[in-house]
Structure prediction request, 78 residues.
Amino acid sequence: MDSVRGLREDKEAMKNSTKRSEYIGTFVKASGETRTMRFTTAAANLGKRGLITVYDVESRGLRKFNLDTLLGRILAAA
Prediction:
């Protein structure tokens, strides 16, 4: 029983250790359309290139955000 409780505690600690913040950014989609999205992701993802997986706050689902076609800057949502 202690090992099950330990696994639960480890899982909870891991979830809490990944700090996620809310951001707003605009990028050009593959179709050529621009898209402004309010999303959450780990701050470390913003230093990457290409497509990152984010959680779209307004659509309530996982989406891809293309950092290579970013227009302007990504701003922290208030």
